[in-house]
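User: Can you predict the 3D structure for this chain?
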Amino acid sequence: MPVIALVLAVLGFCFPPFFLIAVVLAIVSLVRASEPAYAARKTLAIITLVMGVVYVPVVGMLAAIAIPNFIKFQARSKQSECKMNLRSALVAQQAYFSANDEWGDTADAIGFALDGKNRYSYRVAENTVIPAAVTTTPVQDLEAAFPAGVFDSEDGIVLGCAGNIDNDKTIDVWTISSAQRTVDGELVPAGTPHQHVDDVRD
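Assistant: Here is the predicted structure, written as structure tokens:
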């Protein structure tokens, strides 16, 4: 029985229910250790119980490391929504400009639509905002997060998205332009999304 308890204790690091069974078996083994047939296996039962004492802090430390990293990874994957949709909106605007010699003033005009699960609010034309569908942050707060004058452009058009992807006070802000531009001293090529505020890091 102590051997089974020890094996289950080792497996319990991957499957926690096994660990509970192992501890119960180890306790039963210690109780029966007074009988001569089980006395030699007392050490295995004690090792299993010691592993039980070690188990909780080890799992706690692993969780303390893994959970924040998982949340950060999840938030980074959400940012891909914004970058992909900004590129799509810019392509739609450029196609509209090629056909009409002016930028479209609505999402419908340029043929840009979202699936209704967007976590970001999108500015796809001068006065057209597609609000975030999945958020607790008001649209006006998302719009206010854009840096002043970021949509002013003499060459081309600038589109943007803003979203609160990890439910803190910081809002993730990205823009994309049809023309090359300099933002915060950095040269940003045309058609490349630029991140003004990183909600994951800040």
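Residues 2-66 form one domain. The chain has a mean pLDDT of 81.
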